[in-house]
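Quiz preparation item.
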């Protein structure tokens, strides 16, 4: 890569996320060791950047910071009566983290837990009026964020990336979410 390309890429990175780009010019010569060839490195790194970008867009809803809030609202809204363990499975939360997330979502008034009528020991999740009132707005914001963030990809590249990530998701999680 030429020095002109590096300068252009650095300016573009600063424009997208000025607080995250190091002030020193020396960072352009960092040896990434084995990370340069690891999919997991890029997936983790991009996940962090996507999450930070989305957090900025979700602040006005009180849903920024931490993971799982948006998923909890949308999956509960689409599946009234969803069990916390099922939600935890699909958003990859352990029991402790799921408990904290649900407690926070209840305190903020988005979700309520009810005792199951079928199995008295089980709990079920439902959206509150506040939760239901933000569902469509959240969908719009996350779809726009997804389109904006991945606008650097051609439609074909985006389809390929989505297909590959869905394949990995299905292999290691359980099943691929339905596409609307």
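Solution:
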């Amino acid at each position: 890569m030429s020095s002109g390309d590096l300068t252009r890429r650095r300016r573009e990175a600063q424009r997208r996320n000025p607080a995250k780009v190091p002030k020193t010019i020396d960072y352009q010569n960092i040896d990434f060791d084995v990370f340069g060839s690891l999919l997991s490195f890029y997936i983790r790194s991009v996940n962090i950047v996507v999450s930070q970008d989305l957090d900025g867009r979700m602040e006005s809803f009180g849903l920024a910071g931490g993971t799982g809030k948006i998923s909890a609202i949308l999956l509960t809204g689409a599946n009234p009566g969803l069990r916390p363990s099922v939600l935890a499975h699909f958003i990859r939360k352990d029991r402790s983290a799921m408990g904290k997330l649900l407690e926070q979502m209840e305190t903020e008034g988005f979700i309520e837990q009810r005792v199951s009528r079928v199995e008295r020991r089980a709990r079920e999740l439902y959206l509150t009026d506040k939760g239901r009132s933000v569902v469509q707005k959240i969908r719009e914001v996350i779809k726009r964020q997804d389109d904006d963030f991945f606008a650097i990809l051609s439609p074909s590249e985006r389809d390929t990336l989505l297909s590959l990530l869905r394949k990995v998701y299905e292999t290691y999680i359980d099943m691929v979410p339905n596409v609307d």
